[in-house]
Amino acid sequence: MSINWKHYELQEGFYDELISSPGNPRVPARQLANYLNSLTEEEIQSRKLAAESTIKDMGVSFTVYSEGENIDRAWPFDIVPRIISAQQWEKTAAGLRQRLKALNMFIDDLYHEQKIIKDGVIPEFVLKQSKNYRPECEGVNPRFGVWAHICGTDLVRDGDGQFYVLEDNLRVPSGVSYMLENRSIMKRVLPEVFEKVSIAPVGDYPEALFNMLASLSPRQSSSPVVVVLTPGIFNSAYFEHAFLAQRMGAELVEGSDLVVGKDDCVYMKTISGLERVDVIYRRIDDMFLDPEVFHPESVLGVPGLMRAWRKGKVALANAPGAGVADDKVVYAYVPDIIRYYLSEEPLIPNVETYLCYDDKQREYVLDNLDKLVVKPANESGGYGMLVGPHSTKKEREQFAELIKANPRNYIAQPTLALSTAPTLVGRSKVEPRHLDLRPFILQGESSYVTTGGLTRVAMKKGSLVVNSSQGGGSKDTWIVDTSAGKA
Amino acid sequence: MLSKVAERVYWAARYLERVESTARMLSIYDTLLFDLPRQVNLGWYNLIVINSLEQDFNERYSVQDERNVVKFLVGDDTNPSSIVTSLKAIRENIRTTRDVIPADTWELVNELSQYVQDHLQQGINRRDRHEFLGNVISACQQIIGLWQVNMPRDSAWEMLKLGQNLERADMTTRNLDAATAAIMQIEDDDFAVNSQQIIWGNVLRSLSADQPYRRAMRSSVKAPLVCSFLLTDPRFPRSVEYCLNDMIQGVKALPRAEKIIADIRKLHKTVTDRAEDSAPGPEMREALNDLQISLQYLHFSISRTWFLNDQEQLAVAQ
């Protein structure tokens, strides 16, 4: 039996990325849907196996660290891509650029004059109580005034088909290597479709990343030394760190490979002796960067690194302290931040957000815990959340206590009708599964947005949790230009 | 090249060589025992002594018999030099240097580790041991062959060669030591002459040196000639002489190699001096022991030069 789109069970109230009504694919997805329909069950099965063996051969894995054992798991991947039209993507990309530009102006303002607070747009205590505000960064002037050079913004589509920003990851966002690997897998799995459909390529990201990083170099040489700083093999994103270093031709270093000299320059230890480093793409959290300034017991970082950065002898991407804008309370103010710095209306809306420190809003949240999603302001990876409609009475009571004890630390959002896309289950059946999208935005002298991004999909029926650490998988994301069909 | 990457590559090559040599050494004893007259009583525990593993072994086992010795050298993860432990070390080192070593190495090392894990019992039982060790040796050679054919001759390559040569020289001295110890253990009786022939013949075979020896020395197997061949033959790749020369050639391509070259030359001279008197006996064992210590010092010297960049160098850089 082959895939019959008439039998695809669309879910009421949810936007499906590929199918608009039973048997009717959306325009950019039409050729794909027809092609999948032409495959027999055996052919679909063999494509699926081809994907799995490609993943194994390429060594794509993510690491789950549990009980002291390090397990490399194969990357769960679905062979039905998610498709977005080029016209819609263009607008979305412009919105992402706008957002990061404003966020960077905001961060730069916070570490200098704090005009936005003086002008009463954001209450001072939001900043005072932010876990990610670093007084150590005050007065520093990173090149181009940019603090968050690499941003992973999570987008979701609600029932109305509109993209909303769910959160901005400005610390050490990961996933871009999977976006690139997903595309190489798909080229081997469905090469026939690539011949017929205009699918925008994604492969220029490492080049764009390298150019952006190189532009940050404090020394104006034609070949700045760029390194990727990883916490090491036990980190869940080690695969990505190694992947990006390799693709950029940069050295992959750990903290112990670097040293800060008396001249405040950063050097890496090589067999030829010490070699000066210009730009560090760091994949270590702020608090572990420099034991002289932050966690004194951290062995992941480099003593003196903050000193070197403050003196402008080395560029750090992202800059320390950039995470202050990653706070979920700050998130609620992003539309105001865009208006304040750019005098523009936000191109992509936020998800409606209730701030628990506000008495009225908190009251509403406490009365409606069973309908809302409650999130701590400073966690990532989907941890420490309450998903109201799926929660027990006991969990709701627990969260009510947590919120009352520390209202600044919690926000709430309505439960979203996360959009779906057909996903292969069993041998040749497709069912809708919920997904989100993480594009990556770069900002240096100029800015760049990935073509599409990483689509994460909740593989379990009905589940809304897409995090890979919690059973999520991924799909290739196609930006399809329907105006320029391939001959 | 990052010092840490250099160090990891160097150790990956050393451990790979160690796996192969341990397998070779076990197979000497294995076939040796078939050939020796039953009256000759050769102890398996010699293998522990020549690898300087007495303390680790005795903490673990009270009976010094064949089964325990083989178990300890092949599959014991408390033994820092066992085949299993060495393979684990190779995996860890390759995992973090995949960008400078041919990609297929990772897969081959995984396969070999898996094979050893799955067939440990085969390695311990005498009946299947030969096949098991043979497979381990060929898998090692496959990896070395892959490097030989695919690697650019850059710093990573030189580091691999350096580790391989150092471990090889060390292992050749240990093989010689094993044979010398065995000869000394054989009582001086009617069987002795014949047994000596068998032992030296096996040492040569286990190092794949049988034919090269005959061609180079134009002689039957005689103890002093075998020793001198394995120590000083300039063309045989497992002779100490060859390993040292190859190291000198290789490190010339590395930065700041002056001290290492001088150290190797010094070591080389002691080998040539000692080789004059190569009769097996206590003096020979002592000389071999000194040589192992010198190789250990060479390692420290390599480590100081290329792996540990300490404060002194920082001062130099400024």
Strands of chain B, total number? 0
Portion in strands of chain B: under 5%
Distance between the termini of chain B: 20 Å
End-to-end separation of chain A in angstroms reads 30 Å
Largest sheet of chain A: 5 strands, mixed
Residue-averaged pLDDT of chain B, rounded?
88
- Rg of chain A, rounded, reads 23 Å
Shape of chain A: globular
* Arrangement of strands in the largest sheet of chain A: 5-24-23-20-19
Q: Can you give the helix content of chain A as a percent range? A: 25-40%
Total beta strand runs of chain A: 24
Strand share of the residues of chain A?
15-25%
Quote the CATH topology of the domain at 103-150 and 201-340 in chain A.
Answer: Rossmann fold
- Principal-axes geometry of chain B comes out as globular
Kindly report the average pLDDT value of chain A.
90
Structural class of chain A: alpha+beta
Number of helices of chain B: 16
List the total number of helices of chain A.
Answer: 13
What is the CATH architecture term of the domain at 103-150 and 201-340 in chain A?
Answer: 3-Layer(aba) Sandwich
Return the domain count of chain B.
Answer: 1
